[in-house]
Amino acid sequence: MDRISPAAGPMAVADLVELLGDWTSGDGEGKGEGALYRRLAAATTRLIADGALPAGARLPAERPLARALAVSRATVVSAYDALRAAGLVESRRGSGSSVARRPELPAAAGDGRVRGGQATALLQRMVSGPGEVISLGHAADAGGPDLAGALLDLVREDLPGLLRDTGYHPAGLPTLRAAIAARYTEQGLPTEPAQVLVTTGATQAIALATGLFVRPGAGVAVESPSWPGCLDTFRAAGARLVAVGLDDEGIRIDLLARAFAEHRPALLFVMPTYHNPTGRLMSASRRRRVAALAAEYGVTVLEDSAHAAATAPGEVPAPIAAHAASGMVLTVGSLSKAVWSGLRIGWLRAPSSTVESLARIKARTDLSTPLLDQALAARLLPGLPALGAARSALARHRLGTLERLLANRLPSWRVHPPAGGSVLWVELPPGTDARVYAQVALRHGVEVVPGAAMDATGAHDHFVRIPFAFDDDVLHRIAERLAAAWRESTGS
């Protein structure tokens, strides 16, 4: 399901907050509480109009919703009053407020939202555009001159031959599949081109694997925390999420063994190289133990190693698949982090029979990933280690800048330095609800991802994720806005 269903009790406050997203930048002139109630009413009206809040859905009570949105109760009361005046909401003593049953509004079909999902607001930001808000919902560098040079070489040397091609390669352009297979072989994972499926980004690879291995009601073991977009992919497939905690070496083996024994999941999803959001690097010994445990229980492993694409051989441990003497391990990679997020080229490495099955599924959705993008990726792959070294130096500089800014302006925050990647995992003082702080931060022009949105259980609710893939001037603006929001939320 992808919308709130009418139910006997009121909907969860967190569900409505997730659906509302960046409601403070919506309709409503001026500043202050008056503008906020109009914006809240306008945002709720849009949810009713597009069917995300269907007729009969009971809205949360005023006080808890006000606390979650970091506004006064009067703001929520005024918003509900405006919705009642417009005939969109009905209220009964003792029963609270619910969406009015209006015969002129047809039942809405699915709108792309995932029921109980945690990435709705992040995806809506991508759909709507950032506006004036600095979004920390993604970590992406701009494309560099190396990309432009490879593109010019492609046009001069490869384009005539490519134009004679049909363009239909559901499993991927042969030259690119061969280049990806060669990289895995160099990294200690012997691979043939037939074991590689090229996808339109890592997101599609994860979605395809989910469609093949996850049935409604099946369990999916995930790290705690993890990335909300992936969690919602599993939820949309009807999966039961089983959260497993981390330590400094990656996913905890004792907790993973317990999860396998108790829940018998169909799939394990892990990010072993520069985990998102913690930036941790799973050790080689931990990767071996994960592979062995998954084989013992017959659990398919889906490892997302998108951050490992630009690493040199030996820089990070070999993929989990390199330790899988038996059992099924699928390895996902991407050029989005290594080169440019606009180059939507990802891949999945698996047994050739699995790749063939996934290619058939992919062909039904898009026939083939764009040919020119694949040809460009094939040109870029041999130079990834050198590109990665340059990007790593830049990332270290930006990380140092952000750490200094946070230490100066937000000294009560505890930073957990990453082993790699492009995001910083930050712990707020005890007792802080990062979801409430995120609402205040939006009003100061910066979108942060609260830790609870990245945990299948809603834990890590006093953490925030802050990418540092920005130029120094943007990092300074981010720190200023975060600090201003913190002063307002704490009153100090």
Short note summarizing the structure:
The protein is of the alpha/beta class and 492 residues long.
Low-confidence stretches: none
Shape-level CATH architecture of the largest domain: 3-Layer(aba) Sandwich
In the CATH hierarchy, what is the class of the largest domain? Alpha Beta
Distance between the termini: 42 Å
Helix content: 40-55%
How do the strands of the widest beta sheet line up side by side?
A: 4-11-10-9-8-5-6-7
Number of domains: 3
Count the strands?
Answer: 16
Provide the gyration radius in Å. Answer: 24 Å
The CATH topology of the largest domain: Aspartate Aminotransferase, domain 2
| Number of alpha- plus pi-helical segments | 16
In CATH, the homologous superfamily of the largest domain goes by the name: Type I PLP-dependent aspartate aminotransferase-like (Major domain)
Give the class from helix and strand content and strand pairing. Answer: alpha/beta
Summarize model confidence as the mean pLDDT.
Answer: 90
How large a portion of the residues is in β-strands, by DSSP E?
5-15%
The main sheet comes to:
8 strands, mixed
What gross morphology would you assign? globular
